[in-house]
């Protein structure tokens, strides 16, 4: 077994002060580490994308929108509880991570109140019942009691809060700063953070210079941020996440490749959507990229044979994470860790509100 297959091979030490607590303002003034060949890289800012992308390039962006997935409530006994919604199963039944777990026994009822309205009355209570456990995540299945003709996602606007990641502990960011400017499809419990750096103005400039934009949807759930816990990473099983690859995006990808231009994914979630769709299509007997709606559990690590993307824009990821392994599959684990070491030395900002990397096709192994 090689170091590329060992969880310990993806560890690094990050000073806590480099964990970004707030996003840069304007968004596109974050720093950008440009990996432009197999052995060279440069430092810049995110606005510099206009210097590195070419007319005819295609940026593929994940247009998912973060839902107010964190709710605070109480048991009938008055005991306080907290939940983080992960994904809807069917008919307002949701898989959720719960705290404290011992208070979420099957059959127990939880009451939630609007987070910005302290008054508590029977008329503004959202109720849920614990109907099962989920062994894969350690979470619970909660059946919400929704009034007729009301949408659960609409109710979440009253009862839920946008969940910042657990390592963002001292943020002054507005919840809107944890959404991309092109977010459209409600369903994520975390942001596709590589896209947070784009402004409307930067997207407009890129289009004016001939860079094309296409959209996919991956609703970020537990699969993206669940830790890898086995030393032999080839034994890690990704939790499924819902993806959509529309025909319009397929057409743009095919046109881009036919011209010899480059398909650059914005973020690991856009990457997993494109490559995951190809995996599912091949599993069903197909041999070329096509529109797809469904779930994928694709886990990308070194040795993966790329099917769709040529390059990547991504943030700096947590040690031992599946996201770090995905980027390693593109440029190599040792080189990625060396770049991380330099980024730490240069005091780049890490994780969701942090800085970004641009990996150009000429740097891909």
| Portion in helices | 10-25%
- As a percent range, the share of strand residues is 25-35%
**Low-confidence regions:** none
Cα end-to-end separation:
20 Å
Q: Can you summarize the main beta sheet?
A: 9 strands, mixed
| CATH-defined architecture of the largest domain | 3-Layer(aba) Sandwich
Radius of gyration: 21 Å
How would you describe the oligomerization state of the chains in this entry?
Answer: single chain
What CATH calls the topology of the largest domain is: QueA-like
Instruction: Write down the overall geometry.
Output: globular
Order of helical and strand elements = EEHEEEEEEEEHEHEHEHEHEEHHE
Strand order of the largest sheet: 2-1-17-16-14-3-12-13-15
Mean pLDDT: 94
Pfam family, one: Queuosine_synth
Keywords: Cytoplasm, Isomerase, Queuosine biosynthesis, S-adenosyl-L-methionine, Transferase
Pathway: tRNA modification; tRNA-queuosine biosynthesis
Protein name: S-adenosylmethionine:tRNA ribosyltransferase-isomerase
């Amino acid at each position: 077994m090689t170091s590329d297959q060992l969880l310990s091979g993806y560890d690094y030490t990050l000073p806590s002060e480099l964990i970004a607590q707030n996003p840069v303002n304007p968004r596109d003034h974050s720093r950008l580490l440009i990996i432009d060949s197999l052995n060279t890289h440069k430092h810049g800012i995110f606005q510099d994308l206009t210097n590195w992308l070419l007319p005819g390039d295609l940026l593929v962006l994940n247009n998912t929108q973060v839902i107010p997935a964190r709710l605070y409530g109480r048991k009938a006994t008055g005991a306080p509880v907290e939940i983080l919604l992960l994904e809807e199963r069917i008919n307002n039944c949701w898989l959720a991570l719960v705290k404290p777990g011992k208070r979420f026994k099957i059959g127990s009822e939880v009451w939630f109140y609007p987070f910005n309205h302290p008054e508590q009355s029977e008329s503004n209570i959202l109720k849920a019942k614990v109907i099962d456990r989920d062994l894969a995540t350690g979470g619970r299945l909660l059946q919400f009691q929704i009034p007729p003709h009301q949408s659960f996602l609409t109710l979440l606007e009253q009862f839920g809060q946008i969940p910042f990641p657990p390592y963002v502990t001292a943020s002054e960011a507005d919840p809107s700063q944890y959404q991309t400017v092109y977010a459209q499809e409600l369903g994520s419990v975390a942001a596709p953070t590589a896209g947070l750096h784009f402004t409307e103005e930067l997207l407009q400039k890129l289009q004016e210079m001939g860079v094309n934009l296409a959209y996919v949807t991956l609703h970020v759930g537990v699969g993206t941020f669940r830790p890898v816990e086995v030393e032999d990473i080839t034994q890690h099983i990704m939790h499924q996440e819902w993806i959509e690859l529309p025909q319009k995006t397929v057409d743009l990808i095919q046109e881009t490749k036919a011209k010899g231009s480059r398909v650059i994914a914005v973020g690991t979630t856009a990457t997993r959507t494109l490559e995951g769709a190809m995996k599912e299509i091949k599993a069903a007997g197909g041999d070329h990229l096509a529109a797809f709606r469904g779930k994928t559990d694709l886990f990308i690590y070194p040795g993966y044979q790329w099917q769709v993307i040529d390059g990547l824009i991504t943030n700096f990821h947590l040690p031992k994470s599946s996201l770090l392994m995905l980027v390693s599959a593109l440029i190599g684990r040792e080189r990625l860790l060396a770049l991380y070491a330099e980024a730490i030395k240069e005091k780049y900002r890490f994780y969701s509100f942090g800085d970004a990397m641009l990996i150009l096709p000429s740097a891909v192994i």
